[in-house]
Amino acid sequence: MGAEPVLAVEGLRVTFPAPGGAAVRAVDGLDLAVAAGETVGIVGESGSGKSAAMLAVMGLLPGRARVGGSVRFRGEELLGRPEKELRRLRGGKLAMVFQDPGSSLNPVLTVGRQIAEAVRAHQGGSRGDARRRAVELLAAVGVPSPATAVDRHPHELSGGMRQRVLIATAVANDPEVLILDEATTALDVTVQAQVLELVASIQARTGCAVLLVSHDLGVVAGLADRVAVVYAGRVVEHGPVDDVLGAPVHPYTRALLDCLPRATAGPRVRLTPIAGQPPSPAALPAGCPFHPRCPAAVTGPGGPCDARVPAPVAVAPGHEAACHFVAPASRDRRGAGAAP
Amino acid sequence: MGGAAPLLVARDLVKEYRRAAGGWGGRRRTTVHAVSGVSFAVARGSTLAVVGESGCGKTTTARMVARLERPTAGTVELGGVDVWAAGGDALRALRRRVGVVFQDPYGSLDPRMTVGEIVAEPLRVQRRCRRGGRERVQELLTLVGLDAEHGARHPHEFSGGQRQRIAIARALACEPDLLVLDEPVSALDASVRAGVLNLLADLRDALGLTYLFISHDLAVVRQIADRVAVMYLGRIVEEGTVDDVYARPAHPYTHALLSAAPEPDPRRERARRRVVLEGDVPSPETPPPGCRFHTRCPLAQEVCAREVPPLHGDGGRRVACHFPLEPGETLARRADALGRAIALGGGRGARDGGAAAGGTVAGDAGPGR
Amino acid sequence: MVDAPVEVVPAPAAVGDHVGTPTAAGASGRVVLRRFLRHRVAVGALAVGLLMVVASMFVDVYYPHSYDEITNELSQAPSADHWFGTDELGKDVYAKTMRGAQKSLQVGLVATLAATLAGVVVGAAAGWYRGWLDGALMRVTDLFLTLPSLAVLLVLANRYREQAGNWWAIALVIAAFAWMYQARITRSEILTLSGRDYVAAARAMGASDLRIVVRHLLPNAIGSIIVNATLTVAAVILVESSLSFLGFGVAPPDTSLGRLVDEGAQAASTRPWLFYPPGLWLVTLLLCINFVGDGLRDAFDPRRAGTDGR
Ligand SMILES: Nc1ncnc2c1ncn2[C@@H]1O[C@H](COP(=O)(O)OP(=O)(O)OP(=O)(O)O)[C@@H](O)[C@H]1O
Ligand SMILES: Nc1ncnc2c1ncn2[C@@H]1O[C@H](COP(=O)(O)OP(=O)(O)O)[C@@H](O)[C@H]1O
Ligand code: SF4
Ligand code: SF4
Ligand SMILES: [Mg+2]
Ligand SMILES: [Mg+2]
């Protein structure tokens, strides 16, 4: 981690009121930090709270959501700031790209207008200048013939091109933090490869911090420096990408890797599914949220898994896992993982 | 394709959708070339996967096989019977021999019916199924790994994976020979997907089923299928056994597709250099002439834009390319030999400088094996 | 792996795992009832409306006077004996109002039943078969919609005066001009629903058209059909009242709310009890039915209401 983080999230909680009084705990104490020039991958299954966390960082959650914890950008707390100040940050220093390239763009405006508006909202300047900048940006994200593309409407562009336009809008004001929430999930693999390539080159050029949210471990493996594995609204394991995906210690990370079929590498073996279903955030299990599905869980009298929430334990420098049975680094049992 | 007579044979399937395009010029009619001459055969007890990117015609092909969409041209034969020529009792018998599973586990089950009614519906509709009634429903639910008592509940009480199991139970109700599976696990989470894939493999082996398995996920295909047909813009560009095609892709598109499939192994991902294709898939309303891939192909020659490469080959391997790759040859090397620049992407290792950044060829890991 | 960036809906836990929210089509009866009960105005309207129905249906049980009984208390103001007073012939206005309400409801229900049946059949056929049948049926529907229905009804009522006294003949004539919205609504529902995969699944197993429409499509369209039918009841009662008001509805000695309003209109200033009770009764009944219809609509499709009942 070394460098001072640009964005630091600590103990983030997002709760939605649900009919019948019960609360939906979408994010339940999530910690995360990303430094300039660094890419942090956030992986987890659908419903694990990745998007809710990112929206909380951006201050984009609907009003009825309750947010707790801390989100610091360059050391300054963002939670609880007035909307006006947040608006100045959003699209400026903090930018986000969503999954659905269709609904994130306004269908009645040309893409040039939409990029130009993003530019002028933060940098001012004349319409002409903003338009020239839009052409530049479209060229930078690899949209062919940008001079004519600025005058197109979103529906005239393919999904991959729309995603490039969204990325162009997001990087228009040289953000320091770029959040990509499943930005390539709706795209085909060959187009996904193009877009990931683009993100990497933008980051190499601008040195921004990237938060890459995906349910696809493969996408994260290629691009991220560090990975955070999210389960039931919490980070259960995080660390350098090689450690977390190469030598995982948390039972969930291991199980997740075991149940993935591989496209090219390794022998074809029978997959090991994880028992049961991801928990409903409206009824999270007590103790370790993974215990109902965990092959290594020790529950019942004396067993800690259904009684206490495991705290993160450092298994190696910068590599932490939240499991009662992970051996701490001092004993140097890195990679030994869940004991029982 | 040798061996015994295949269970399912599709010959030159074509599907074109005509639609009136709006615009100022009044009524202009355009034609969507969804499927343009697709042929394949599936041996009894085996699985043929059809892969390709969205819009390439996978679903349309599956729907023509399942007799849900009438082909514009071409035939589908199941056990020697022409599916689209059958009527009356023969059609009834055909319906019984084919089960269908759809992608969206939320849309494929009638929300107003109980699970028991859903699974029993084929039995009711067919009337002539060998067995019927309550016991059969319980048996089917148990077969797909659900609780036999779940029959009284409604679909919205189940998760995506469980619903897909219900859909599989329904497809199996009349003891079919063939299951047409259209992206059956694409909507499922990784941890649940593995279970459904295992179930499908077990059912196939236990019941001697034949699968036509549609997917866009190369990893899933490798897990479940014996053979794979790669589609691009309405045509099959390459077909063969999964092991063979994945290890030695001969069509440039297959090569690019395999090299773009992400793997959850960071060191491999960084070392690997993927072929990043230029541009987008052209619209199926105006497919390019000749080889449909020529607008994006790094190997395209003049002849490619003129002549449609036929899908031919032997030894169970068919390729539709004028200049197929030799076994072991990579796309990058061939492009290099042609003096073409090829957009290669790679992990951070490749970008951050270091050894790999030197030449185009060095460090080209290809799609791996 | 469907991922909606902002519109994530909370999932009610049912069997211990998280599952989708029942959608409009998927809402089970219990869910609909619960959402309806949250709608205070609609619940109140339902209570008042039911009370009014019971009051009119069972008037003989609890009220000493009958609508055709001629007393010798002429043109009396309301009193404990004659709750709404009497008319110039000495008939009890409350009894007449209840009798009128009965007839209006009967006409409303029968006409709605007929219109709903016709509309659903036309709409389902058009939406399921599409093509030329759809074109033809929709053209007929549009034709009926553009006809000035009240004028046509007047002509018909005038022409068949003898039968016109017959309340169910009136109901059927009104129904002939009340099925079009139901047909359109059913058609559009069927059009969207027939794209669902469960319909494809039913086709793949060889289910007949009739089975698919009756077992899969109509049950999933039932919400819109019921809502529209409820609103049709109110519309039909209003049309019948207009006809009666113009002198072409239910024939004397029988009566309906419209006819009572018509008869009371001339005396509205001198003997207001002849005019206001049946008039207010009619307005209240129509309001109640409409509120219930709105409540049902929100209950069947909370997204269209936009508020999720809170
Ligand atoms: N506006 C909201 N109202 C109620 N519940 C919500 C809302 N937004 C999110 N949730 C709930 O919070 C949980 C986490 O949602 P979120 O979308 O952040 O997960 P995710 O990891 O991004 O999953 P996916 O990949 O499916 O988007 C989900 O169970 C969701 O139902
Ligand atoms: N009913 C239809 N009308 C018009 N075009 C269609 C229809 N169904 C499919 N298509 C078009 O046919 C092409 C192939 O579709 P499909 O078979 O669904 O592809 P896939 O399953 O590979 O995503 C697409 O371009 C799609 O838009
Ligand atoms: S704490 Fe217990 S249940 Fe949780 S991951 Fe570790 S072993 Fe499994
Ligand atoms: S035929 Fe030509 S354009 Fe098509 S794939 Fe082969 S080399 Fe490329
Ligand atoms: Mg998400
Ligand atoms: Mg498809």
Folded structure, characterized:
The complex is a heterotrimer of chains A (340), B (369) and C (310). In chain A, a hairpin with a 5-residue loop joins strand 1 and strand 2. Chain A has an 8-stranded mixed sheet with strand order 6-7-8-3-9-10-12-11, sandwiched between helices. A 4-stranded antiparallel sheet of chain A has the order 2-1-4-5. Helix content of chain A is 29%, strand content 22%. In chain A, helix 3 crosses helix 4, helix 3 packs parallel to helix 6 and helix 4 crosses helix 6. Chain A is of the alpha/beta class. Chain B has a domain of 62 residues. Chain B contains 12 helices and 13 strands. In chain B, strand 9 and strand 10 form a beta hairpin. In chain B, helix 3 packs parallel to helix 5 and helix 4 crosses helix 5. The two termini of chain B are 23 Å apart. Chain C has 310 residues and is mostly helical. Chain C has a single domain, classed as MetI-like fold (Orthogonal Bundle), CATH 1.10.3720.10. Helices cover 66% and strands 0% of the residues of chain C. In chain C, helix 4 packs parallel to helix 9 and helix 12 packs antiparallel against helix 13. The N terminus and C terminus of chain C are likely disordered. Chains in contact: A-B, A-C, B-C. Bound molecules: adenosine-5'-triphosphate, adenosine-5'-diphosphate, iron/sulfur cluster (2 copies) and magnesium ion (2 copies). The site of one iron/sulfur cluster has 13 residues of chain B, from loops.
